């Protein structure tokens, strides 16, 4: 099986796993992943993660031109911004509309610079700081501009009242990271107002140093 064929199958398999576990619903969410020659495979617009066809994924050349497959997701500005600003660290981007992270994003007193409280080590290890961005209309190119404004300093962002976007070195890492984001948001919602014990600054610093976490 060629690299492209294998990646097409992998995107559809991971997308269905996310759909089957309720991490995205209907036709929401989108995934992109980069081939070794710089081309991108992207989930089409209006498609369900539960029923993706590997042959119909959108294909872009290394210059960002659509060269095959169905019409791509309207959220391409999100994906393109991560590939542009983190070219050596981004091999895939995943965007979901997962419920707990969206719920947390619209509550008062959420830290916009780091929306996830330090409840566990794993969110820090896999995500670093998650920047909360303001609301944008879906498909608005300004979403990409907001990510470019971070100058490549965040691997994950949360679009208020919309959903999380995570980039990583490959598709599996991006999926695992966005799952961790949703699980941590769920914990934050479950413990909100209960004065939970958070990781200390020293514990966070130890994680950052040991696992080479981006944390500025």
UniProtKB/TrEMBL annotation:
EC number: 4.1.1.104
Reactions this protein catalyses: 3-dehydro-4-O-phospho-D-erythronate + H(+) = dihydroxyacetone phosphate + CO2; 3-dehydro-4-O-phospho-L-erythronate + H(+) = dihydroxyacetone phosphate + CO2
Location of the Class II aldolase/adducin N-terminal domain: 9-189
InterPro entries with a match to the protein in the record: Aldolase_class_II_sugar_metab, Aldolase_II/adducin_N, Aldolase_II/adducin_N_sf, OtnC
Keywords: Carbohydrate metabolism, Lyase, Metal-binding, Zinc
Gene Ontology cellular component annotations, sorted alphabetically: cytosol
One of the Pfam families matching this protein, by short name: Aldolase_II
GO molecular function list: aldehyde-lyase activity; metal ion binding
BP GO terms, sorted: pentose catabolic process
Top-rank lineage group of the source organism: Bacteria
Required co-factors: Zn(2+)
Similarity field: Belongs to the aldolase class II family. AraD/FucA subfamily.
Function: Catalyzes the decarboxylation of 3-oxo-tetronate 4-phosphate to dihydroxyacetone phosphate (DHAP) and CO(2).
Name of the protein: 3-oxo-tetronate 4-phosphate decarboxylase
């Amino acid at each position: 099986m060629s690299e492209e064929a294998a990646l097409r199958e992998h995107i559809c398999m991971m997308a269905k796993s996310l759909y089957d576990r309720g991490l995205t619903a209907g036709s929401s969410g989108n995934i992109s992943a980069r081939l070794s020659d710089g081309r991108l495979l992207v989930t089409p617009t209006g498609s369900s993660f539960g029923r993706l066809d590997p042959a119909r994924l959108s294909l872009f050349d290394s210059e960002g031109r659509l060269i095959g497959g169905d019409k791509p997701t309207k959220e391409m500005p999100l994906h393109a911004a991560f590939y542009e600003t983190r070219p050596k660290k981004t091999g895939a981007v995943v965007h979901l509309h997962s419920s707990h992270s969206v719920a947390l994003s619209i509550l008062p007193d959420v830290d916009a610079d780091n929306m996830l409280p330090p409840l566990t080590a794993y969110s820090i290890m896999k995500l670093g700081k998650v920047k909360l961005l303001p609301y944008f209309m879906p498909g608005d190119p300004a979403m990409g501009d907001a990510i470019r404004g971070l100058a490549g300093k965040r691997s994950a962002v949360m679009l208020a009242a919309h959903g999380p976007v995570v980039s990583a070195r490959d598709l599996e890492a991006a999926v695992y990271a966005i799952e961790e984001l949703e699980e941590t948001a769920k914990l934050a919602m479950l413990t909100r107002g209960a004065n939970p014990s958070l990781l200390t600054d020293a514990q966070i610093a130890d994680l950052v140093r040991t696992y080479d976490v981006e944390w500025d």
